[in-house]
Amino acid sequence: MDIDVIISYLPLYKEALLLTAGIGWQGIALAFLLGLLCAVITHLRVPVLRGFVAVYVELFRNTPLLVQLFFLYFALPKIGIHISPTVCGTMGLGLLGGAYMAEALRSGLEAIPAIQSESAQSLGMTGMQTFRHIILPEALSSSVPGIVANVVFLLKETSVFSTISLMDLMFTAKDLIGMYAKTIECLTLLVVFYLIMLLPVSVLGSLVERRVRHAEFGD
Amino acid sequence: MQSLGIDVLFKGTNFIRLLGGLWVAVRISLISVALSILLGLVVGVLMTSRSKILRALFRIYLEIVRIMPQMVLLFVVYFGTTRVFGWNLAAETSAVIVFTFWGVAEMGDLVRGALISIPKIQYESAEALGLVPTQTYRYVILPQTVRRLIPLSINLVTRMIKTTSLVMMIGIVEVLKVAQQIIEANRRVSPNAAFGVFAVVFLLYFLICWPIGRLAAYLEKRWA
Amino acid sequence: MGQTLLKISHLHKKFGDRVILKDLNLEVKKGEVVVVIGPSGCGKSTFLRCLNALEDIQGGEVLLDGEPVRKDASNVSAMRQKIGMVFQSYDLFPHKTVMGNILLAPLKVQKRDRQEVEREAVELLGKVGLADRRDDYPRQLSGGQKQRVAIVRALIMHPEILLLDEITAALDPEMVHEVLQVVLALAKNGRTMLIVTHEMAFARAIADRILFLEDGEIVEESGDPKAFFEKPQTERARQFLRSFEY
Questions:
Q1: What is the pTM of this model?
Q2: What are phi and psi of C68, to 5 degrees?
Q3: Cβ of residue C111 closer than 8 Å to a chain B Cβ
Q4: Distance separating the N- and C-terminal Cα atoms of chain A
Q5: pLDDT score at A216
Q6: Which of A105, C27, C139, C172 could form a disulfide with A39 if both were Cys (CB 3.0 to 4.6 A apart)?
Q7: What's the rounded Cα separation, in Å, for the pair C33 and C195?
């Protein structure tokens, strides 16, 4: 292994990491909002919308991100919708993640016993107040394990961004291998940089999960 | 408005080729799942072993698999082994190795979970009826473990099928690659083919994964 | 009431350094119903589990028909077939129907004829009032129904003695009654039983002999349940009984 080569590649990998992580977080934020919206729609049984949500969730949970990205990036322009690779990556991750987050949050909402909202209402809270102060916080905390797992999963999924010509970590590694054939160095850096991105999230995730579990009563 | 390219798929053998590409993806996942289930059963039993070292080793293995994107693993195995060991692994072999490496860890963890979730009282009441340990496993513990495992391993199959879309990145001609080739070949006559063809690929994945997922959900509910 | 069926002498049980049972001695005669009572954590359940070799013991011995019952013995399966046991928690096998639960051991362990066992199973199910539930899965049954099936599952092995470990403790009150009726009927038919329970009225009604266990020791033993419940001889038993209202 050639240390000089590694050092000279570092800035390129750093750039790529920032790009991957940046799109990753934006995509995850989008996924969370979309998922929450869908979960609430399903939970409140909003007519019509509920049907759309169900179709969306099933479609995106049962297809690979790579195929979704190809569709967004190569197919949509043919019907006149042009999106930049960055927006495409964010949207793709957001749409995929939204479907998974919706499932996680929905099961969190379902897990809340009816007596909780009944007792909130008997205290004189309105439906909206009950939802905001009682139902939502409880659902969020019981969905934490699912959300954490989804965050790690979505960050891993960012590894397909290179296919829509985003200069992410995979792209950089492949590009450099092709150009200079320093395979070992490139692959080592690839693994290390993914660890830098994912390890803290994974560790943090299990810490949060443990904390939330302690906050629950019993069980 | 011009045609959106669905017609391209009905020209010549295009659709058959696309299905052929899909079969490559499904084949890789089926082989990997079969290997994962076999080895995962062994690993899962070992993960419940009393040896701390053994458990720690499997824990590290599992964490590596959980944290590394399959794409990175594919690159490391496909490009790395050639470099380090001088092996020239076929792309498909590399893919099977990576997916099996991943599947065994996941499957092992599922088996471990299923085994420890059987309450102790189940072993004891079987023993109290005079069943010897092999009978206890054969008639009481394993049937319950398998029931918990089948829906979960079916889910693993759909995850594998979806993940196999990555293998185009190491040069395997699977459904996405075939789709690209078809679009490329018809660029002149049908410039908008990308829309129709990718929409069909999208749908094909859905049509494979969705029923399998439903089956898993049904079994999970039924055997809960 | 005839010869001694179960003989326990100098039984010692430890979990690590913690002594659970100290030097327990007991003889149970054929047809006798012995009820063990005592505060939670006094070792009652462990005591029963030792008799069926679900726990290993650190001293003393358990003899059934003069033969030792030991966890590491090669005949442990044969001995356990002579000892029926029903646990507190519903321990039916969830992947088998009521019939499947009952038939498993007679067919696989005792290798009996399926037709004969099935006939007996139907008859026993009828006696506990569950004739129509033979094809249900455990999750379709109430707690009381599950416990009655568990009793049938133990009875069909033709055990010489039945061990009942707080079989009503996890049940809703209205289901306790139906289970206790089944046990009372068994006692009337001369079934030998060793029962751990918290149901004092039941203990009083069914026992030929009462054992009061505390801190792993037999504090008081009485062949006259009525007298025991009205005038216990020891201060510790008196205190224990005072905490119950029945």
A1: 0.73
A2: -70, 145
A3: no
A4: 51
A5: 46
A6: A105
A7: 8
- The secondary element (H helix, E strand) that includes residue C217 is strand C217-222
- List CB contacts (< 8 A) between C71 and chain B: none
Q: With an 8 Å Cβ cutoff, are B129 and C52 in contact?
A: no
What does the block give as tokens for A64?
Answer: 């690979």
- In a 3-state reduction of DSSP, which class is residue B165? helix
C153 neighbors C72 (Cβ within 8 angstroms): no
Choose, out of B59, B68, B72, the residue to mutate when testing the contact with A (most A CBs < 10 Å): B72
Residues shown for chain B: 224
On whether the CB atoms of residues B193 and B182 are closer than 8 A, the answer is yes
Coil, helix or strand at residue C213? strand
Chain C CB contacts of B128 under 8 Å are: 52, 54, 80, 83-85, 87, 154
Nearest to B223 by CA among A104, C96, C98: C96
* Domains, in order of start, for chain C: 4-242 (3.40.50.300)
Residues making up chain A, counted from first to last: 219
The pLDDT, as a whole number, for residue A218 is 35
Burial B59-69 (b: 16+ CB within 10 A, else e): eebbeebbbbb
- Residue count (chain C): 246
List, in order, residues 6 or more apart from A124 with CB less than 8 Å away. none
Size of interface B-C (CB pairs under 8 A): 60
CB proximity list for A218: less than 8 A, separation 6 or greater: none
- Protein fold of B6-222: MetI-like fold (1.10.3720)
User: CA-to-CA distance for A101 and A66, rounded, in angstroms?
Assistant: 19
Six token digits for residue C120: 């007996």
pLDDT (tens digit, 9 = 90+) per residue, A135-163?
888 888 888 888 988 999 999 999 988 88
pLDDT tens track for C40-92: 878 888 999 899 888 888 989 999 988 888 888 888 888 888 999 998 877 88
Q: Which domain holds residue A21?
A: 3-215
C150 contacts in chain B (CB < 8 Å): 125
| CATH code of the domain in which A185 resides | 1.10.3720.10
Residue in A133, A62, A143, A137 with CA at minimum distance from that of residue A106 = A143
- Domain extents in chain B: 6-222
Tell how strand C59-64 and strand C193-196 pair up.
Answer: unpaired
Q: Is residue A36's pLDDT more than 60?
A: yes
Q: What is the DSSP letter of B192?
A: T
* DSSP 8-state secondary structure symbol assigned to residue A123: T
Which residue in the block uniquely carries the two structure tokens 């869908």?
A: A38
Per-window interface: B 120-139 vs C, CB < 8 A: 121-122, 124-132, 135, 139
